[in-house]
TrEMBL record:
<dbReference type="InterPro" id="IPR002156">
    <property type="entry name" value="RNaseH_domain"/>
</dbReference>
<dbReference type="GO" id="GO:0003676">
    <property type="term" value="F:nucleic acid binding"/>
</dbReference>
<protein>
    <submittedName>
        <fullName>Ribonuclease HI</fullName>
    </submittedName>
</protein>
<dbReference type="GO" id="GO:0004523">
    <property type="term" value="F:RNA-DNA hybrid ribonuclease activity"/>
</dbReference>
<dbReference type="Pfam" id="PF13456">
    <property type="entry name" value="RVT_3"/>
</dbReference>
<dbReference type="InterPro" id="IPR036397">
    <property type="entry name" value="RNaseH_sf"/>
</dbReference>
<feature type="domain" description="RNase H type-1">
    <location>
        <begin position="1"/>
        <end position="128"/>
    </location>
</feature>
<dbReference type="InterPro" id="IPR012337">
    <property type="entry name" value="RNaseH-like_sf"/>
</dbReference>
Length: 134
């Protein structure tokens, strides 16, 4: 079983976004900070989640045998995955569902921001780094 936490941070004035990804397996953590193409926070949350699953796929030997506990503090991402639908973000929902498809089972859970501090901190660190390079 793998646990995946994702979060995004966006600077509305500049449109810069970055993501934080935390993968936990066998008490080992993998931390990822990544710049994003997204220019809004909702887009950034979907993009970070998709990248998180892509990174996870790269380290898993047999995804068809893997259960993923996926935690997000984005109510939109959580609800959209449950419904397989988001009015203004359907292409992002579809891309995220496709990234999840190789895994045996993905259990998505919305958590409050305070329970997602690892990914939140990584996202903010990545955003501050991106702001320093613009």
């Amino acid at each position: 079983m793998y646990t995946l936490y994702t979060d995004a941070a966006t600077q509305p004035q500049t449109g810069l976004s970055a993501g934080g990804i935390l993968i936990i397996h066998d008490h080992q953590q993998t931390q990822v900070k990544t710049p994003l193409q997204a220019t809004t926070n909702h887009q950034a949350e979907f993009e970070t989640a998709r990248i998180g699953f892509e990174r996870l796929l790269a380290v898993v030997t047999d995804p068809a045998q893997v259960t993923v506990l996926f935690y997000t503090d984005s109510q939109l991402v959580s609800d959209s995955l449950a419904k397989h639908y988001a009015k203004h973000y359907q292409s992002l929902v579809d891309a995220l569902l496709q990234a999840q498809a190789p895994f045996q089972l993905v259990l998505t859970q919305w958590v409050p921001e305070k329970q997602n501090q690892g990914a939140h901190t990584l996202a903010n660190q990545a955003l501050h780094s991106a702001e320093g390079f613009k």
